[in-house]
Design brief:
Number of helices of chain B: 11
CATH class of the largest domain in chain B: Alpha Beta
Largest interface: A-B, 34 and 36 residues
Distance between the termini of chain A: 48 Å
Shape of chain B: globular
Number of domains of chain A: 1
Shape of chain A: globular
Structural class of chain A: mainly alpha
CATH topology of chain A: MetI-like fold
Radius of gyration of chain B: 22 Å
CATH superfamily of the largest domain in chain B: Periplasmic binding protein-like II
Strand content of chain B: 25-35%
Number of helices of chain A: 11
Radius of gyration of chain A: 21 Å
Helix content of chain A: over 70%
Largest sheet of chain B: 10 strands, mixed
Number of strands of chain B: 14
Distance between the termini of chain B: 67 Å
Order of helices and strands of chain A: HHHHHHHHHHH
CATH architecture of chain A: Orthogonal Bundle
Strand content of chain A: under 5%
Number of domains of chain B: 2
Oligomer: heterodimer
Chain lengths: 234, 297
Amino acid sequence: MDLLLDSLKSAFLLLLSYDPELFAIVGVSLKVSAISTLLASLLGVPCGFIIAYSSFYGKRLLLTCLNTLLAMPTVVIGLLVYSFISRRGMFGSLELLYTQKAIIIGQVILIVPLVTTLTIAAISRIDNRYRNTALTLGATQLQMAWVIIQEARYGIGAAVIAAFGRVIAEVGISMMLGGNAKGFTRTMTTAMALEYDKGEFVLAVALGLTLMTIAFGINLLFHFFQGRTYVDTV
Amino acid sequence: MRKRICSVFGLLIVVLMFAVSGWSGEKILKMSTTTSTQSSGLLDILLPAFEDATGIKIKVIAKGTGAAIRDGQDGNVDLIFVHAIERENAFVREGFGTKRYPVMHNDFVLLGPASDPAEIKGEKNAAAALARIAGAKAMFISRGDDSGTHTKEQALWGSSDVEMKEMSQTIIKKGIEKKITSNRPAGSESWYISVGQGMGKVITYADEKQAYTLADRGTYIKYKFGKTPAIELDILSEGDLELANPYGVIPVNPEKYPHVQFALAMQFVNWITGAHGQQLIEDYRLEGKQLFYPDAL
C-alpha cells in the first residue's frame, strides 16, 4: 500500500516538476506510437475494406491467419525485424537498429493485423443495403467505399484507438529494436522496465500512472471529436 | 451453472497455488544475483555441486546489482550475491544483511572497435582512456541501469579529468522526498548513450554501433568466443587496479525478516567460501580462459 501511495505522490511530483527528461520520454512514446498507428491505419483500413468486400478462394483461411497474427508476441516481431536490420543483417547498411524508425517498423507489423481484423469486423456489421443503395444511386466504387466508411467510422475509430493503445503500452519491440537509449529511443514502457530493473519501483509505478493519465487524456480528446461529428451528422 | 463455473475456477486457483508453492519437503534457498554470475555460466557449475553436497536447491533470480540488492532489502530472497562493494557495505550497515563475505573477483575491461577512433589501445590507465574517448567524442555505450558495472563506470569517469554532470530525479519514498542521482560526462548528448540494459545487451548494442563500452571480462569472453557470429569488439584497455571487480555474498538479516532461511543461507556462505567452492571457482574456465579468482582462502 505504501508503494502505491508513494508512487502517486511521486507521479504528481514528476508531472508538476516539468522534468525535461520525463517530457522527452513521453514525447518519444507519443511520437513513435502516433506514427506507427497512422501508418498501420493507412495500411490496415484499406486492407480490411478490400478483404471484407471481396470474395476469393481462401478468404476464411486468410481471416484465421490474421486472427492468429493478433496473438503474435512482441518479442517475435522484435527478433524478426532485428535479424533484418542488424549490422550483419540484410538491411544492416541502413543503420536502422536502435532508432525510432526501427521501433515504428516493428510496431506497424504488430498492429496492421489488429487494424485489419477490426476494420473487417466493423464493415461486416454494416447493413448490405447501404452498399446496394449507394450503387443503385449510381455511386462509383470509390464513392460506395466512402459511404461504407462513413457508416463504419465508429468501428474503424475503435480499431485505431485499440491499435494506439497496443503500441503505446508494448515494451518488447521498443526494447529490442529501440534499445532504450536515453534521449533517443527511451519510451515510457522501456523506462518503466528499466526502473524496475534498477529496483526503483516507486519511479516505475509513477511512470505507469503518468502513462495512464496521458492515455486517458488522448481518449478523452478522441471521444470529444467523435462525439461532435456524431451530433453534427444527426 | 454459475456455481459450477465458480467452483471450477476455485479448484483451478487452489491447484495453481499448490503448484507454485512446491512440495514443502524440499530445502530451497532463494538468491538474487547479478546477470554476470548467471550468464558467465559459473552458477551452472557451483549450484549443482552445492546441491550434491548439502541437498539444498538454490532458486536464482538474476538481475542488475541494484535490483538484486533491492530484493534483499524487501526480504524477497534469503541471500544476495553481487558486485558493488560500497553498496554491499551500505546494505549491511543499514541492517538488511548480516555480513559481507568476499567470494571472488574478476575484472572489467574497456571494449572498443578495432578501428579505435579514440586511440586508447594499450592505455593502462582506465580513467585516462575514458578521457580520450570523451576528447574524441567517440560513441560510448553506458549500462545506465544502476548496476555494479554502471557504478564502476561512473566512478572511473569521476576519477578522470572529464567534467561531469549530475542528473537527478526526485521521488517520494516512505513519505520522504528522495533524490536519485546519476553522473555522466557534461555535454555528451551526441556520443554518450545510456541504454539501461543488461551487460549482454549493452555489448551487443556497442557491437552494432561499433562503439566503446565498459564490460566485465566474463560476459565479454562469452560474446567474443562463445557465440556465433562473434562480436567485433576487442579489449582495448585492461589491467588497471581500478578495474578490479570483487564479488561478495550477504545473507539477509533474519532479525529484519524472520521468514528468511538464515541457517540454509549460512550453509551456502560456508560452502562457497570454503575449500570446495573456492576450488571450483579457481578451476572454472570459459572458452579456455579463467574468469574468476577466489578471494576467500
